[in-house]
Structure formats: structure tokens, C-alpha cells
Amino acid sequence: MKLPNRVVTMAVSGMLIVSILSPLAAFASQSSRQKNKNLWRNGAIGGGAVALYGLTHHNTGATLLGAGAAAYSASRYEKDRKSPAAAARARARYDHHHHRR
């Protein structure tokens, strides 16, 4: 059975597009991870600035809110910073466990 040239051309074009766009999708997820990490870092800096403002102006509410925001943002920043290494360790454990000889 002979396929029409148009069908073959569309199938090959589709496979080519998928193979080109797949690495771009992986890059986009890394880029978004980096953006989130930067947002948490900037939030920690901002929270620290609010806490400092509260301390210098004797405003207990601003101090506590700023310190809490800074602590939470710093915690999330560290979690996001370590997540690629944790994923790599999990992949390595899986590969080692499932591909032993």
C-alpha cells in the first residue's frame, strides 16, 4: 500500500516539530524554576526590609510581619534551591536500583 506524499510529509513534519520543541519545553521548566527561586529570594529581602523598618520605627506589627515573611520566603528559597539536586539523587537511586546486573 502506497501512502500519499502529503500524508508522509505531514507525518515527518510533525515528528520534526516535536523533536525540536521537546528540549525547549525542558528549558522552559528550568527557566520557570529559576524565576520562582528568584521571587522567593526577593521576597525574603523585602520581608527583611519591612522588619528593619519596623525595628527602626518601633512598629512591632511591621517587625513581626516582615520577619515572618522573610523567614518563610527564605525557607521556600532554600527548598527550591535544593530541589534539582534532590531530583537528581532520586533518579540516580532509581537507576542504580532498577539497572543492576
Write a structural description:
Helix 1 (5-56) packs antiparallel against helix 2. It is elongated, with a radius of gyration of 24 Å. It has a domain at 36-101. By secondary structure, it is mainly α. It contains two helices and no strands.
Distance N to C terminus: 44 Å
General shape? elongated
SS content category: mainly alpha
Count, helices: 2
Strand-residue proportion? under 5%
Number of strands: 0
N-to-C SSE string, H for helix and E for strand = HH
User: What is the rounded Rg?
Assistant: 24 Å
What summary fits the major beta sheet? Answer: none
Structure at a glance:
By secondary structure, the chain is mostly helical. It is built from two helices and no strands.
From the structure above, extract its key features.
101 residues, 2 helices, 90% helix, elongated
Give the SSE layout.
Elements: H1 5-56, H2 60-98
